[in-house]
Amino acid sequence: MNIQQLSVFLENKPGRLANVAQVLRDNFINIRALTIADTSDFGILRMIVNHPQKAFEVLKTSGFTVKANSVVAVEIDDREGIFYDIMSLCDKNSLNVEYTYSFVEQHSNKAILFLRFDDCDKAIRTLSENGYKLLTDAEVRKI
Question: Within a 10 A sphere around the Cβ of 104, how many other Cβ atoms?
Answer without folding.
Answer: 11
